[in-house]
Each structure stands twice: as structure tokens, then as C-alpha cells.
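ok so for the tutorial part 2 we go from a plain amino acid sequence to predicted C-alpha cells. step 1 is just haveing the sequence, like this:
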Amino acid sequence: MDQPVSPQGPPNMDIFLKGLWKENPTFVQLLGMCPVLAVTNSVINALAMGLATMFVLIMSNLLVSLLRKVIPKQVRIATYILIIATFVTVTDYAIQAISIEVHKSLGAFIALIVVNCIILGRAEAFASKNSPWKSILDALGMGLGFTFAVLCLGVVRELLGNGSLLGIPVFGESFEPWIIMILPGGAFFVLGGWLLLFNWLKIRKSAGVQHG
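step 2 — the prediction. this is what the C-alpha cells look like for a chain of 212 residues:
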């Protein structure tokens, strides 16, 4: 669990960057797996879910940090959920106003952002113990890390499953789509592949540091 960041602790850039790589919520912490597996059958859906989650994460972290000294410890989790649910509702209506098709594609997974372990975890572990600015940086890093992860899956699944990218054909008419890639089973295969690559890169980097 994250500890409060002291003035002698890591600089603000480290707080931001850790969510992108070292503590990536999907590829390292394996959090928020439901939307990662369910809505990454296209790049548009993946991007929409990533941005929606990042918005809720930033706003809830900010508000939790601002109210951290006045929220009673006995009801802090219930208060965090109420804060998160408020911003999820705002996000739900915003997506519906921007694109009905995307809203239908994401379905119930927009509402399920309320129980996303990434958001509640950052509120409890970081925002409730740190200043608003540091909480925003933490949320931005984690949100971008999550968005990057779902886009990694979305790009591969749409390319192989539909032969397109952002709905634009890439491989031509002769390409035979891998239908499995846009089905739930394909999500597990692609996620496993990305986790293998991510861990291999981490091991290689660690080995390079040791030899250096």
C-alpha cells in the first residue's frame, strides 16, 4: 500500500510515471480486468473506456484529497464510493450525449466503473493521504496507464478480428478475420500475450541494471 509522499520523497514526475510502467494498473497490478477483457474488441470502445475511467479517477482522487481531513474514518469507504458514483453518473450521461453507439457498446461497464478496484484503491491508498496536486498526478498516471493497456488490447483485437483500425480496413479484402479475437476468448489470449511481453521487458531491464 502506498504511503504518504513526504517532501524528501520521490519528485512529482515519479508519482506520475509510476502508473505508466512500474505500477501499471493492468499489466502489473492486474486490476480492472472486467472492462479490459470485455470492451477491448475495438479501438474506439477501448479508448472510450480508458478516458472515462481516467476522468473518474482524476476527479474522485481530487475530491477525496480535498475532503480527506473532514471525512470520518468510520464512513470513508462509503463516502469514496458515493464520490466515485457521482462522477460515473456524469461520465455516463456525457458518453450518451457524445455517441449513442459507443454508449450502447460499453453498456453496463460504464456503471461498473464505480466498483473498479483501480479507482477505489487509489482513493484509499493515495488520495486520502496526499495533497490534491499529488493526487491528481497519481490519478493521471494510473489513468493513462490503464488507457494504454486497454488500447494495446483494442488495437490487436480489432486488427486481427476485423482487419481494421478505428473502423478503417487495413489488410484489404483478401484478409480472413480471426473471429476468435473479437470474442471473449480472444481477449484472454491477447491479454496473456501482452503480459508476457510486459514481464519480459521488465526482466530484461532489471538484468541490464544489475549487469550495469
